[in-house]
Amino acid sequence: MTPRRTFCLAALASTWVLAMPLGAQANTAVSGLESVLQNAQTVGNARLKVWGFEVYDATLRADPGFTATAFDRHRFALELNYLRAFKGADIAERSIDEMQAIEALTAEQATRWQQAMARLFPNVQKGDRITGLHLPGQAARFYLNGRLLGDISDPEFARRFFGIWLLPQTSQPRMREQLLGLAGRTP
Questions:
Q1: Is residue 160 a contact partner of residue 102, using CB atoms and an 8 Å limit?
Q2: Domains and CATH numbers, the chain
Q3: Which of 168, 123, 37, 143 is CA-nearest to residue 177?
Q4: The pTM is what?
Q5: DSSP secondary structure code for residue 63 in this structure
Q6: Cα 112 from chain centroid (whole Å)
Q7: Distance (Å, rounded) from C-alpha 5 to C-alpha 26?
Q8: Side-chain half-sphere of 37: how many Cα atoms within 13 Å?
């Protein structure tokens, strides 16, 4: 495995931790997320392993009509069930690194988005369930164990953030295939 590939795998493992610090919004009812996803169907599932370590189980849920090629035009949820603990301090920085590896960010975007993520992402423990909700043309909304953590209200951030897993340029193409239900299909 090349050093770049190894770094990307490690960065992705940390990035995937869509974790946020508990704040005033963390007491929102669990049913809020479920009501938003009431028509959603499971698109695919995947387990991320890095260097033989199991990191998380991921599930992509979307409303009917979801397409991989236009994921940024659809409402969907990416849920991660963590199989180990991660520090939140590294998540924002590694998320930016993964976004940069796919498509260059301006210095202003990188700074603004890293600061926004740093305000939201807490440490996570084994068994925590983190969900990122894509609201097309609006925001990325994050939940910890079903409780609302907050939004980053920037559609370009949302596209780039979820693109870490859903764009063809991801550092985890096999995981992308599984999440999008494409694994085993011929083009």
A1: yes
A2: 3-179 (3.50.70.10)
A3: 168
A4: 0.79
A5: -
A6: 18
A7: 35
A8: 23
